[in-house]
Amino acid sequence: MDRAESELAAHLANAARGAGIDCRHVTGLRKLSGGASKEMWAFDIEAADGTKCPLVLRRQPAGRRFSAQGLASVAAEAAVVRRVAEAGVPVPAVAFELPGGSPAGDGYVMARLEGETVGGRVLRLPELAAARAGMARQCGEILARIHAVRDHATLMLAERTSAEELAALEQRYRDTGQPRPVFEYALRWLAGHLPDTGRNVLLHGDFRTGNLMVGPEGIRAVLDWELARIGPPAYDLAWLCVGSWRFQRPDLPVGGFGTRDDLLASYAEAGGAPVDRDALHAWEVFQTMNWGVMCAGVAEAFVAGRRTVEAGVIARRASETEFDLMRLLAPGHGAWNAR
Amino acid sequence: MLDRPAALLLIAEARRALEHGAAPGFPQKVAANALGIAERELALGPAFERAVRERIGALLGEFGSAGEATEALCAAIRSGTLRLDDSMLIDHLIRTSVAKLAVDQPTYPAYRASRGEGDGGQPRD
Fold it and tell me: Which ranges carry the DUF6285 domain (chain B) (predicted)?
């Protein structure tokens, strides 16, 4: 361990003891590859009797700005994870939060679980075939449990109605300054078709292949709760159906592993207020454009000077969402057969 | 209109990455991917822009460039000048989306499936 790592290990040990955890010392600290905005670190806590507990730290280092969308702090995410765990949602159990002002930054520590998270591998690995067969139904059940959490006021999450979501999407598109006829077309279509259920629920906000940890028996944990918010239930159901998360399986609309019928049926059977196919379709249009605007935003940041070759390539993925939007909005048109 | 960042910026960034010793594996693959987009943009871009200008011209009248035509089309969709069920409009949007993916990402699985390539098969419900 270098000096910064030794200091982080010491801060983690202090935070653990402060939370009443039996911690003789922190061992095996190593940085994991992780999300773009957050750092993930693996480590073990060794108790006085020598037993080890495998853990993961998710943090924003001190001094770094929190991402624009989503929760007020990483530690606030832990409160959401604790709440959904009580509701029976599979998540890594939260062990402790970093106390406010900790030199280790803003974050929390959770159980270190084993499983596959990389989207393309989840959809391809032969040993996960049985898991994939049941995952659309499992997703329906899990989303119904998340959406059933009622006492979410204390979580202080942002809330948006359907109309507010649509207005925010349009504004984010306008802010990119790029003229995109397909997005204009989708916006006008959404203005006439996006249903307002009038009932907002707790949403995961980023529920898709890539944020689901999978083992041979199925989904082990739902990860990455930083975009949790209050909004229309179909928001989560439709995000899972966006074409960009299907990887090599565009034929399987639910995350590249299942069918919409299985997703909607299991959602309703598990107590979710029924979402019909038209509502899901309209929200798929919304969410496909939502991902497209995110890619277009990367292009603006690139042109403004925040340049990496990876960002340049992601920016040029906005066009895949235009293609998917037209597949959703005009599937039977003769132009698809033009060569 | 093809998207930003344009071919020259992609080439410059890929060159910078290679000069700084982009590691074998994923980083080199990303740089090669960026160069592939730029290469296809240089090869297919002029015909793409010509087709965009002609198709929008047929819908809305003559324009000096594909960029001007695209901005006018956006305004016409937004204002309701064009109906959403206008078959010529939909024809243009589909052809343009397909042509953009031919530059940006010809390996996108849904694109390949729509061209009868790949092994994705028929979409299911």
Answer: 25-108
